[in-house]
Structure formats: C-alpha cells, structure tokens
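Researcher: Let's try something more involved. This one mixes different molecule types, so please make sure each is placed in the same coordinate frame as the others.
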Amino acid sequence: MNDALLIWSYLSEGPLLWLTATLVAYVIGDAAFRAADRQSWANPVLIAVIVLALLLWLTGTDYMTYFEGAQFVHFMLGPATVALAMPLYDNLPRVKKAAWPMLAGLLAGSGVAVLSALAIAKAFGIEGAALASLAPKSTTAPVAIGIAERIGGQPTLTAALVLVTGIFGAIIVTPLLNMLRIRDWRARGFSVGVAAHGIGTARAFQVNETAGAFSGIGMGLNAVLTAIIAPLALRLFGG
Amino acid sequence: MIGTLAIILGFQLVGEVASRALALPLPGPVVGLILLVGSCLLRPALADRIRPATMGLLQHLSLFFVPAGVGIVAHWELLRTHGMGLALAVMGSTVLAIAAGALAFTLVARWTGSEDPSALKDTSDE
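Model: All components are placed in one shared frame. Result:
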C-alpha cells in the first residue's frame, strides 16, 4: 500500500499522468463520436471533458494540478490557429467571391450573439460582472478573456461560458441549419464560426472542409468585431 | 512532420512578436495565420510542402480544447449560483446567432449573385 501511495505521489507531481489522461479521454470521446455515427450530440470535447472531470473528482485532484500536465495539449491551440491558414489558402478563390455575404453574416451573427445573450440574461436578473463576463462568450477563449477583463467581467467565468457556447453551438448547428434548409457549406461554416468559435470550427471540419475554412474565417473576424461591439452593447444594457 | 511543425511554430512566433511590438488588436496566432497565407501566395510550393501535416493537425482540432474545457470544474459553483439565466442566455443566443448569420449570408449571396453551386450540401443524406 505504501508503494502504491509513493507511485501515486510521484505521478501526481509530473505532467505524464494528466497528459496521458487527456489524450486517452479524447480517444474515448472520438471513439464514442464515431460509434454514434458522427452525430453532433456525441461531441468528442464534451465526452472527454466529462470523463476527465469525473476522474479529477474521483481522485480529488484540483484543476491546477491537472493543467500542469494538460498544458502541452492546450499549447497546441496556437499552432492549430496558424494551421487554419492552409484551408483558408486552399479556399481563397471561394473566399474572395463571398466577401459581401461574409460581411452580412458577420454583422448579423456577431450582433445577435452579443445582444440576445445580454437581453436573455438581463431578463433573468443577471447584472454586473456576470453580465460583462457573458458578453464576449462567442469569441475564441484567449480573445474573450481579454475583452471580459477590459469591460469588468470575471475571466474565469468567461472561459467557462466560452466553452459551453462552443459545445452547444457544435451540437446544435447541424440540426438547426438542416431545419432552416441552409445548404450552402460556406454559410453553414461561417455562421458556426462566428457564433461558436473554435469548437464550432472543429465541428465544421468534421463535416466538410469548405465549411471548416469559412468557420475559421468567421471565428477570426468575430474576435475583432466583438472587441468593438461588446462594450457598446453592455452599456446599452446598463452593465 | 517535424519540419512542418517548425514552420508553423515559426509563423506563430513572428505573429506573437508582431502583435506585441505593434500593439495589434489581433492575437499572435491570428497574425501568424495571416502571414502564412501571404507566404503561401508568394510561394505556392510552401503550401504543397506543409499541407499534409497541417491538415492532419486540424483533423484533431477538438483535442486542443479539452484542457481549457476541463476548467469548468473550477467554476462549477459560480455557474450554479447564476444557474438557469446564464444557461438559457448561452443556448438562446447561440441558436439565434447561428440562424441569423447563416440566413444573412445566404440572402446576401443571392442578392449579389455570389452563390457557389460547388459548395452546396448534398441533401440526400438528411
């Protein structure tokens, strides 16, 4: 028993255990996603997060300890963002042709995301820092946290809301746009990138490469626009 | 694979330095993305060289969000106290924003004649 405790204390101090756990949890999530015939409700991020959250709870491990191992995976968000250049380059003729539709989709999607979120939260009596934390939730996590800090939100709450938005958007986008009979892959991808950032973009790439390319552009453009409209919208709702 | 990773990290590094040095509103990786597209336009051979490993990286984009996602455990209490309102605000606004964005995109594509028949979803699989 003493040996097991020694091994545990050794493992819990290095990055190996939680790095491995993160990859295994994702493999489980991805396998479940494939087993569910790539249905959007079986989102691999959601499944992996649930598996890891349970594991942390069972072992009494706090998030900081976990993140020391998982940060190597987290770091790859940066290179993966740079890598979005590839589908963008490959789809450049399509992108040039779609400048006006993209502008319209950006203004509508970004504006509605911020204003409707604040309106619904306000109706439930949410005010102050929580309201400010909500305003940038459709943008990619590092940008959203920067905006939240500037307008008086709580960065930690914003990070959680960004995650929930991304997973929900990734789950809802396919049935929602099928219902609305939107067949244009460019519109399908772009709108989910604007509303549900990188997790929506990851979902778009699972379905169609053109959708993924437009989703990446939507995410990037929305990061810039939300930085401008979130403070204005918050003032409108008296935050 | 390693060569491609070095190229991508190089662009991220340059992007990060440019973003900070010039106080740009864009995060470093996004600046790196723009520089990489520009470089591929100038030298199409670069695109062909890095395409396989880059697309492989993007196939598993979901994985890279998992560590930040697990961060939700640290804010569980905070989320529970604000409860229903935040959940409904997130869900309602996401549905509305996706619908508004996609509808605005397709309407303007029709008005400006910039529809693209090669980018249409095959409806037979619905």
